[in-house]
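Hi support team,

I'm opening this ticket because the web form for multi-chain structure prediction keeps timing out on my end. I have pasted the exact lines I submitted so you can reproduce it. The total is 540 residues across four entries, so I didn't expect it to be a heavy job. Is there a limit I'm missing, or should I split the entries? Thanks in advance, R.K.
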Amino acid sequence: MKVTSIRIRGYHCDAYGHVNNARFLELLEEARWKFLEPAVRERFFETEKLLFVVVNINIAFKRPLLPHQLIHIHIKDLTYNNRSVSMIQEIIDDRSSVVCSRAEIQFVLLDSITQKPVPISDEIKAKFEQLLTDD
Amino acid sequence: MKVTSIRIRGYHCDAYGHVNNARFLELLEEARWKFLEPAVRERFFETEKLLFVVVNINIAFKRPLLPHQLIHIHIKDLTYNNRSVSMIQEIIDDRSSVVCSRAEIQFVLLDSITQKPVPISDEIKAKFEQLLTDD
Amino acid sequence: MKVTSIRIRGYHCDAYGHVNNARFLELLEEARWKFLEPAVRERFFETEKLLFVVVNINIAFKRPLLPHQLIHIHIKDLTYNNRSVSMIQEIIDDRSSVVCSRAEIQFVLLDSITQKPVPISDEIKAKFEQLLTDD
Amino acid sequence: MKVTSIRIRGYHCDAYGHVNNARFLELLEEARWKFLEPAVRERFFETEKLLFVVVNINIAFKRPLLPHQLIHIHIKDLTYNNRSVSMIQEIIDDRSSVVCSRAEIQFVLLDSITQKPVPISDEIKAKFEQLLTDD
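Hello R.K., no limit was hit. The queue was backed up. Here is the completed structure from your submission:
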């Protein structure tokens, strides 16, 4: 499991006073980039000419997120299909440890030349498992 | 069915050059507000002290959206549960009529005093059906 | 003068309940793309390999913008320098005609090959003046 | 001087591949909230019933910001007027120490009851100076 912590700000929110549902997806994307940072640094995906492309998101909004709230975004439960990967992202409130949102993200790795999804090789699986467990 | 048309701009896109997945949710929200405009004007939900709150979104990103592209967002297939409503939103490319994205949106109507979801009454159902069919 | 009309939505706003200052810049950018649409359609800037790049924005926030408010964004007073152009954008409330925000935008036209600002030629000036006056 | 560090992500960027000008204002707002965090924690402005409202931003975009770039946002040079405060925010590239953007932000403190800007008292000035110098 990998965790990214974010402090909610007024500009994340909408006129209802809590974080807008589109902004949830940006918070989740921030956590995915943070998760991928070691691989970006070693140019793993760049060398392989692979682009991350999200193909499906199923997100449940369980609790509102409010200004000044500290949240922790967990990435876990990666599942490897032939040509796609699924992961679970959960947004956890710092104080109560309550799950405020739960999302299932499905993405492909696009060959940046052919623009087709590549097969999820053992090398790619090993890289993701390393990202999940490393500090 | 109800249609909202939007021209994609450079600021809707991310570093990949196509519309970012968080921004898809804003485009869908714009279409929902457009759909609700007649009810907002007659203060239907305000009088009833009801707030729209989205509780789940399941969205498939099928085709990238690009700058200058004209899209049409369809709202259809409303399904009424005891205390929630589901709808389908599809993003259609103007030129090819291809479905670029399909989302199932589930929302509740929150009593703004008690902050609890109200039952979906026949009056509420009739209002939505009127919004779907009226010009 | 050129006018773009936009309906303010809840998602344009922040936790203060009015449009966030970053979002003002998106509303202004939407109006600039609308203004440029005829030139985009005839591929004027594309043929010339020119990119619009904003180099300075000086924006005064005079009145808050609220959900459901209808605004009109005016573009006017283009001033041509050697290698940059300035314009005024004003956000006008539909009901009161009050100026809610006034911005001075300075931009350059970047040669997409050399990445240097090109001189503002008579042809470019004529194109902007045409965009300002045409319907 | 106070510094907030942010890693640029693909979703901060637009179709030009670099950070969109509206997003610069969100990055600057993030740095202002970070700067204000100790005062938020001790409920300084809440107790005084004061709201931060930005009234003018003059921002120069000097260098593009790109995905994966690490930036440092500096807050400095606070100037106190009768009923407003000005500050300078600079965005500095981590590697080159080049100033990529410089903004002058003018804000007022609004009395949340009367909705009028309050005079900038010696107590308020002392609080800001403490925020600038404390760790």
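A quick check on our side: DSSP finds three helices and five strands in chain A. Let us know if the file doesn't open in your viewer.
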